[in-house]
Each structure stands twice: as structure tokens, then as C-alpha cells.
Amino acid sequence: MQIVYSVLLMALIAFVYSDAHAADTQAGRAAAQKCVQCHEADDWEGEDAASLESLIKDIVAGKVKHRTKIDLTPAEIANIAAYWGSGGR
Ligand code: HEC
User: Fold this and answer.
1) How far is the CA of 50 from the centre of ligand 1 (A)?
2) Where are the domains of the chain?
3) pTM of the shown model
4) Mind giving me the DSSP string for 52-75?
């Protein structure tokens, strides 16, 4: 019985995790509407979401030069990074 519970627990964790990830990229798609005027979602395809996130953070903080001033909440930054990092899928 123990093993059945472990398998169920792992399936549940995998489900919750994948669902949370989908929500992130969906929210990222919405937040990235602020950027589509100049950027395609797949410009950064294959880029690691974590490094993309820190790059966007630095732009928002004014540490990295960017064409326009961008204003995003930390959650929006993470979601856009997840969305762009997945190539817009
Ligand atoms: C008015 C046009 C414009 C808008 C809007 C815009 N960008 Fe950019 N962005 C640029 C240009 C131009 C560059 C430099 C050339 C390039 O990498 O495409 C750039 C570069 C970047 C880079 C790479 C910076 C680097 O040093 O490698 C990131 C990341 C980025 N933009 C994020 C964003 C995000 C996030 C948004 C939306 C919140 C956004 N941009 C909106 C024009 C824009």
C-alpha cells in the first residue's frame, strides 16, 4: 500500500508542477504584450528562463541599457522569462 501512495503522491506533484508551469507561460504571454511591438516570443528560444529573468530584471532596474524604459512586476518578469524561454509555447 505504501508504494501506491508514493506513486500517487508523485503523480500529484507532477500534475501540480506542470499546471503551475502552464499558468506561468500563459501569464507571460499576456504580460509580453507590452513587448511584442519590438520582440518576437521566439527571439530567445532555448534561452534558460533563469538567465532571461535576471537579464529582464537588470533592464527594469536600469542596469542594462534598453531602448525603452520597461516597467514590470517581479511576477511579470518571471512569467515573461518562462514564456520566452519556452519559445512562446
Ligand atoms: C520600442 C521597442 C521595444 C520594446 C517595446 C521592448 N523592447 Fe526590448 N529591446 C529593444 C531593442 C531595440 C533591443 C536591442 C536589440 C535586440 O536585442 O533586439 C532590445 C533588447 C532587449 C533585451 C536583450 C537585452 C540584452 O542586453 O541582451 C531584452 C531581454 C528585452 N529587450 C526585453 C524586453 C521586454 C521584457 C520588453 C517588454 C516589457 C521589451 N523588451 C520591450 C526594443 C524594445
Assistant:
1) 17
2) 2-85
3) 0.80
4) HHHHHHHHHTTSS--SS-----HH
